[in-house]
Automatic annotation (TrEMBL):
Belongs to the SDHAF4 family. Residues 61-75 have a biased composition (Basic and acidic residues). Residues 1-33, 49-75 are annotated as: Disordered. This is DUF1674 domain-containing protein. It comes from Pseudovibrio exalbescens. It comes from the Bacteria. Pfam families: DUF1674. The lineage of its organism: Bacteria, Pseudomonadati, Pseudomonadota, Alphaproteobacteria, Hyphomicrobiales. Signal peptide: none annotated.
C-alpha cells in the first residue's frame, strides 16, 4: 500500500496531520448608511441630533464640587455608588 491510497484512521494520524488552526469566523457585513431605507436614515439622523443636544446641555451645566458624582439620587432613584448604598 502506498501513502497516497492509504486511508487514515484515528490510530495512524500523527500530530502534524491534524489542523489545529481555528476556523476563520465570518463577520456579518455591516449595512452601510446608504443601504438603509429612508425612514431608518431619518431616524438615525434625528437620534444623532438629540444626542448632540443632550451633550451640549450637559457641558453647559456647572461642575459639582466635592459631590457624590453622577446623577442626583433624589431625582433618579440612584442611591448606590460603586456598590455602596447611601441614604441621606
Amino acid at each position: 500500500m502506498t501513502a497516497d491510497n492509504e486511508t487514515k484512521t484515528a490510530l495512524n494520524y500523527s500530530s502534524h496531520d491534524i489542523d489545529t488552526t481555528p476556523p476563520e469566523e465570518v463577520a456579518p457585513k455591516k449595512k452601510r448608511f446608504e443601504d438603509l431605507p429612508p425612514a431608518a436614515q431619518r431616524a438615525l439622523k434625528e437620534a444623532e441630533e438629540r444626542r448632540a443636544q443632550i451633550d451640549a446641555v450637559t457641558k453647559q451645566r456647572p461642575t459639582e464640587v466635592d459631590g457624590r458624582g453622577g446623577l442626583d439620587p433624589a431625582r433618579y432613584s440612584d442611591w448606590e455608588v460603586k456598590g455602596i448604598a447611601s441614604d441621606f
